[in-house]
Every structure is written in structure tokens, then in C-alpha cells.
Amino acid sequence: MGLFRKKKKEEQIQQEIKTDERYEAGLSKSRNRFKEGLLSLFGRGMKISDNFMEDIEAFLYESDLGADVCDMILEKIEAASRKKDLLAYEDIRDIIAELFEDLFKDDDLSIPIDENHPCVILVVGVNGAGKTTTIGKLASLYRGEGKKVLIVAGDTYRAAAIEQLDIWAERAGVDIIKNLEAKAPSGIVYDGIQAGLSRNSDVVLIDTAGRLHNKVHLMEELDKIKRVIQKIIPAAPHETLLVLDGSIGQNSVVQAQEFTKVTPITGLIVTKLDGTAKGGSMIGIRQKLSIPVKYIGLGEKLEDLQVFDPVRYVHAMFEGFEES
Ligand SMILES: Nc1nc2c(ncn2[C@@H]2O[C@H](COP(=O)(O)OP(=O)(O)OP(=O)(O)O)[C@@H](O)[C@H]2O)c(=O)[nH]1
Ligand SMILES: [Mg+2]
User: Fold this and answer.
1) What is the mean pLDDT of the chain?
2) Residue 324: its pLDDT value, please?
3) What CA–CA distance (Å, rounded) separates 85 from 49?
């Protein structure tokens, strides 16, 4: 191999290691609870008894995986215990890990950036879920991939929201379309899409105001934003990403269901997984909604958004990368 390719390969390996480290550090709280919780059940002997099954059921429920996923795991453990008398921690861990990976394995995580010019990505969610921060991180990610990115300040309810997005645009080194005088999002969204076309952008990221899923007029406004976009590009938005706060666990399911009533959601972004021990709740959310998790937020910095990787996720939840 030539020197150049060797160097490239080395860079790639370093990048992979960095990603492993981010997953590991970002999910450490969840891992501590999940792994320690599971291990502690084995202190009292490993025989699968009624008591043990009850303990494990309690552990799974407390992990906020959602009832369906808990039942799936319990069934698998029962089936395994019929074949083998003594199940060890590793057996249970493998059963759970395998099921988690299975749930995610057929998800289409692609974002159709190369197929659309520009690819319009609408970002929605309830108040404080992490939309604006995530847009900044996404902008940086796509720019790093050599894409020309434009951000649109579609949250016109607070001047502070526009200023916050402006700071993220600067950090990410991308352009922003904003209007501090705007009273409603439709005008600025229209301008943003036009600018995306005239500036030859690869990606247009649209920030929106946080909206509680039970506020009807705000949900209708979302529909209006979509129609404005479609006036210019009928096939857009090409992605509508719903940002969910990972620390609220299964409650996200209701939020997501309400959003899907107004607009099809093509992907989920689960944020704040670094600050919570409820990292496992993503599994239940994914299972209940059948919408792929495309990215996860593992911190507040620009580089703390990761493309969701089921294998890395499961590994980071159970083991941590150093030990393997
Ligand atoms: N620890 C951590 N904090 C995050 C993450 N993503 C967002 N936050 C924080 O969550 C808070 C809310 O983030 P915003 O991006 O302002 O949320 P938003 O959805 O735009 O909020 P509204 O526009 O008010 O609806 C901020 O303090 C962010 O720094 C994450 O992945 N990890
Ligand atoms: Mg915001």
C-alpha cells in the first residue's frame, strides 16, 4: 500500500476509535445502571427460579425498555432456561444484546443528501428536546463530509432562538437564513428554500419552534410549514426528523405518535443520552414507533452527535469498549 493510502487508513482507524470512545463515554451512565443492575441479580445464585424471573422482570421494567420489549426478553430467557439449567450473566446479556441488535438491524438510516439538491431536512419536536443544538451538530457533520449546508431559522417565536441558532451556524461554519422581524415561520422558510436553491446548497436544515404535541394550532402550523416548502420543492421535505429527549424515556412515545399524525416522521434523533441512565428506553421507543433512530446526541458540543450504530450502541450499553 502506498504512503498516502496508508495514512488515510490510519486516519480512518483513529476516527473509528474516537467514535467508540464517544459512544462509551456518552452511554456510561446507562451502562453503569444496566450492566451493574443485571450483574447484581447474579449475586444471589444463577439458577433460573420463579424468584429470579421476578427479579429480572423488575430489573427490565425499571430500565424503562417498555412493556413489549420486556416481554420479548422474558420469553427468550424462559426459552433458554428450558434448554439449560443454569444461566449465567453472560447468557442473559447475550440474549438481551441479540434482541436489541435484531430490533434495529433492518432500519434504513440513510439521509438522501446525494439524491436531492438541495436535500431539505425539517427538524421538529417538543420544547427543549434539543432541536437547535442538533441542527448545529448536523450542520457541522455534513459540512465535514464536504457538503454545502444552509440553516434556516424557522423558530420565529423568540429572538433568543434565532441568536442561539446563529451561534451554532458560526460554530459549524455554515450559512444561515434568518429574520429577526419575522412573526411567523412560513415567510422565512420560503426564503430559506429559495436561498438553498439559488446558492446551490446540498443540504437545507430547518429549525422549528418547540411545540407541545397537544397544542393544536402549533401542530397546524407545522403542516403549513410543510406546504410552504412543497410550493417550491414538491418532494420536500426529504427528511422530517423528530428530536426526542432521551432522558424522558417511554413518555417520548406519546409525543412521537402525535407528531406522526400531523406529518410523516422519517427518523428520530434521541438526545441527551449522556445525561441519563435511561439509555435503554430507546429500544422500547424504536419498537413501539417503527421509526428508525438515525442519530443520537451524546453531549452538548459540536462533535457530540453520532450517527446511530446499533452494534456500537449495544456494545457501549453492556461492556464499554476497553474491556473487550
Ligand atoms: N447533555 C446534553 N445536552 C443536550 C444535548 N442536546 C441538547 N442538549 C441541551 O438541551 C438544552 C435544550 O437544547 P435546544 O437545542 O435549545 O433545544 P430545542 O429543542 O431547540 O428547544 P426549543 O427551541 O426551546 O424548543 C440545551 O441546554 C442543550 O445544550 C445532548 O445530546 N446532551
Ligand atoms: Mg430551539
Assistant:
1) 90
2) 40
3) 10
> How many angstroms is it from 18 CA to the middle of ligand 1?
23
Domains detected in the chain? 1-107+114-324 (3.40.50.300)
Ligand that comes closest to the CA of residue 128: 1
Tell me how crowded residue 12 is: count the other CB atoms within 10 A of its CB: 10
Q: How far is the CA of 130 from the centre of ligand 1 (A)?
A: 3
Of 296, 300, 302, 304, the residue with max ligand 1 atoms within 8 A of its CB, to mutate for a pocket test, comes to 300
Per-residue pLDDT band at 86 (split at 50, 70, 90):
confident
**DSSP type of residue 320:** -
Which of 23, 30, 124, 133 for a ligand 1 pocket mutation test, highest count of atoms within 8 Å of Cβ? 133
- pTM, full prediction: 0.93
Ligand with smallest separation from the Cα of 26:
1
Q: Is 30 exposed, middle or buried (0-12, 13-18, 19+ CB in 10 A)?
A: buried
Residue 80, pLDDT > 80, answer yes
Per-residue pLDDT at 128 exceeds 60: yes
